[in-house]
Amino acid sequence: MKKILILSILLIFGLSSVKAGGFQVRLQGQKQTSMGLIGTPMNFGSSSIFYNPGALAMMKQDYSFDIGVNLINSHVLYQSTSSSYSAETNNPLSTPIHIYGAAKLNDKLTVGLGFYTPYGSTTQWDDNWAGKHLIQNISLQAFFVQPTISYKIMDNLSIGAGFVMVNGNVDMQKALPYSEESNVRLLGTDFNYGFNVGVYYQATSKMSIGLDYRSQITMKIEDGEARFSIPESLETMVSKNNKFSAELPLPANLDFGISYQITEKLLAAIEVDYIFWSAYQEISFTFEENGDLLDNTNPREYKDTFVPRLGLEYKLNDMFTFRTGGYYDQTPTNEKHFNPETVSLDSWAYTLGVSIKAYKNLGIDLNYLGIHGKESVKEYESANFEGRYKTSAAIFGIGINYNF
Amino acid sequence: MKLKYIFIALLPLVIFSCKPEMEDGFKPSSGDADFSTYVALGNSLTAGYADGALYHSAQAVSYPSIIAQGLQEVGGNDFIQPVVNSEQGVLPGKLELAVIDGNFTPVPAQDGELDPFYPPIGYAVHNLGVPGAKVAHLLAPGYGNVTNLAAGLANPYFVRFASSPDVTVIDQALSMQPTFFSLWIGNNDVLGYAASGGTGDVITPIADFATYFGGLAQYLNSSGAKGVLANIPDVTTAAFFNTVPGDALEVDITQAAMINVGIAQVESKVNEILTMAGLEEFSYNIHLSSGKNGFLIQDNEFLYRDLFNAIADTSTDSEMILFLHQAQFRQIDLAEGELLILLTPQDSLAMGMGSFFEFAPGMLLPFGIPSRYVLDKTELDLVNTATEQFNDIIKNTADQYGWAWVDINSKMDEMKDGMVYNGVSIDNEYVTGGVFSLDGIHLTPRGNAIVADLFIEAINKKYDSKISSVNVNLYPGVDLP
After folding, report:
1. Phi/psi at B211 (5° precision)
2. Phi and psi for B46 in degrees, rounded to 5?
3. Could you give the CA distance from residue A257 to residue A161 in angstroms, rounded to a whole number?
4. Rounded to a whole number, what is the distance in Å from the CA of B342 to chain A's nearest CA?
5. Is the domain B38-242+377-474 a CATH 3.40.50.1110 member?
6. Domains parsed from chain A with CATH numbers
């Protein structure tokens, strides 16, 4: 009898973690963010460390520093397809930051160091919402540090490479069906690394081209903490404090962009990003104790996605530059394995921003990004969990840069 | 000039906190039915009985009250139940879960004083579910009359809320002027028989069932209300009949040998008697091996039943009488689906009841599980036939009057293999399955939610309405200690 009881945990262990698709927004530079997140063919100083290390050697000044923060206010709406039941996330404001510094060592060689947090979000559902047995809340934080070197091969061609070090944390909780209060919380951390390489080519005086590849980084949680809040009567069967291991890929990205100076004041840019989400086929959890009962594998079967972006820049005068842009981000999720822990929908996004040359070498950037996930009906088949979802995010950012 | 640009730049702050809203989505509607006054008729399942009692918190989540919540979105008025204030119930019998020797075990609950069932509560109710009611009882005058209790003609649960002593349940229901009704009745017409292993109560004869059920339907139809009928589940799908495994006589090789010797001894003694009576040699054809074996059960159709009983009646040798009764046993026939009920004393099963006991030093006597704990194949056939026939009547009645029809029977059958609701797996397993309460027959809040959901699905289908489905997993199963 008890064995069967525990077996029923298996299915509900469908946890995963990464904040995907719709929220894998690359808020690693205010100017890029303002232009539909286009950065590969742009030369915006030290923030190229993230967007295209190849462009770093092309920076105009000898030193470039850039610091910025974004406030992300995101919402996920859920509605049952067969009832008027609805639920909404109550996500706390998340605030990813980035800090870059770069210096020209000589005419050819530029080095830099970047710190950024591309996955810094929290999804918090009500503890007693309809999908509580799938997820109650999940938060993922990943801190990236990237020392970078960039080399100008010719006056109009430069390359760059960065070594990416990641410290990631995951913290998630879901309800268990044994009593009102039963739940399991999983906490894990990992340090891992990858790379970021890029090429920047000034094709003509008006046109530049950029290509960037960021490698997949697989987060491997070993000895993660699994805390079971379960009725006393089950404690003899399931250890309250267990250890688990799991692997989660942060997918590779291949970005290609072109910018074109249409008039002296107006610049247009396009970019296409290919995101290798298909690396995320499943997520498995292995437990140190009670493995025969708890170990489980959950299909995800993500597919690669392709993000087209468009951006415009208008330089009003020496003081003000305005930018705007937009993009369409497809969901990488599989139709049959849509788990509310990662609500990622096909999304439209538009961006706005202004750069103000405030004082001598000091610039201030403001940006706004609005993301609208398309209302869609999705299903997590193995849990028989279906619903209508809609998402939105409003992101406001401010940055300061100092170049000399 | 500059100020203007700064203003434009700050504009995003204003729209920063916009939230999404659904454009499409579920819109409740009443379709072709009028749900303003909903009345529920039925037995203990309708009343909200659980864990062997009708108590406050279980009653609050009876399936009709869950349905009524959904109906509120489509014009339903308040749904009033005959509220039990006590957590212990109206009559004794409530169970709670304890862990004894590492096993989940139901034990008598201590949740305070019982609610009195007399005098009546004195207000009109929409839930007229009466625990214990059979189909005929809904038409019986005096079923709620306290003076009829002693004669067994009244039911204390109906006494509690009967609007007058001699009103019938159906008349009281119609006096509420329902615009919509649900009727789920008939379970007790087979359950009483099945749950006592065929030893107590009788199955309602099919002709009587047809008459009573038809009568109820006529009354309901005459009121002009629309409604929904539900069929009765095959009672053997309930946890009550599926928790005590019939093959749990687990023995090692020594014990098996010992019992086989015991059977041989009993057999030779039986044959001595048969020889004296000039009858042919008899064999039990039972051979235990190490591992799991089917239990021994009392054999109601023992070949020499009459002979043995006759000898026992005339004998004065108490040891002999005991032997003659005990020798009437056989092994449970699991291939035929024979079942043991939940109330089978479990602590004495292993190597005790269901096998042999050492009557005197060196003397083994068979200890067949008494018939009242066993649903044998003859009884199973009767139960199955009655269930099928009753369900045919229910379905035909629904068709005849154009009412919605809920196939509870199929759902409970599916439940044997389990199903998944919003990430929670449920099945008909006792305690852990989440559907059956501690008495093994009545439902948990989650079980009620599933039933309510089935009713709503059937109503929506028939009347083209859109009543919200039920969030099954927000209702608890059996909370573990």
Report:
1. -65, -50
2. -70, -35
3. 18
4. 14
5. yes
6. 2-399 (2.40.160.60)
Interfacial B residues in 91-120 facing A (CB < 8 Å): 99, 102-104
Task: Give the gap in angstroms from C-alpha B18 to the nearest C-alpha of chain A.
Answer: 7
Q: At how many degrees (to 10) do helices B305-314 and B318-326 cross?
A: 170
d(CA B220, CA A196): 75
Minimum-distance CB partner of B73 among A71, A84, A380: A84
DSSP B370: P
> Which 3 state secondary structure label does DSSP give A118?
strand
Q: Going by C-beta distance under 8 Å and a sequence separation of 6 or more, which residues neighbour residue A236?
A: B102
What is the Cα–Cα distance from A58 to A347, expressed in whole angstroms? Answer: 33
Residue ranges matching CATH 3.40.50.1110 in chain B:
38-242+377-474
Q: Are A190 and A222 spatial neighbours (Cβ–Cβ below 8 Å)?
A: yes
For residue B381, which of B243, B234, B213, B188 has the smallest C-alpha distance?
Answer: B234
Q: Is B456 left (phi over 0), alpha (psi -120 to 50) or beta?
A: alpha
SS3 call for B252: coil
**Which tens digits make up the pLDDT trace of A317-358?**
999 999 999 999 999 988 889 988 888 899 999 999 999 998
Residue A184 and residue A228 in contact, taking contact as beta carbons nearer than 8 Å: yes
pLDDT per residue as tens digits for the range A206-245: 999 999 999 998 889 999 999 999 888 888 778 889 999 9
Shortest distance between the Cα of B99 and any Cα of chain A, in A, equals: 7
ipTM of the complex: 0.83
Q: Give the span between the Cα atoms of B295 and B333, in whole angstroms.
A: 9
Cα–Cα dist B311/B277, whole Å = 11
Please tell me which of the candidates A84, A130, A392 has its beta carbon nearest to residue B422: A130
Residue B271: CA count within 13 A, CB half-sphere: 11
Query: Up-side HSE of residue A291: CA atoms within 13 Å toward CB?
Result: 10
Query: Of A77, A234, A368, which is closest to B22 when you measure between CB atoms?
Result: A77
Please report where in the chains the tokens 């009546």 appear, as a residue. B120
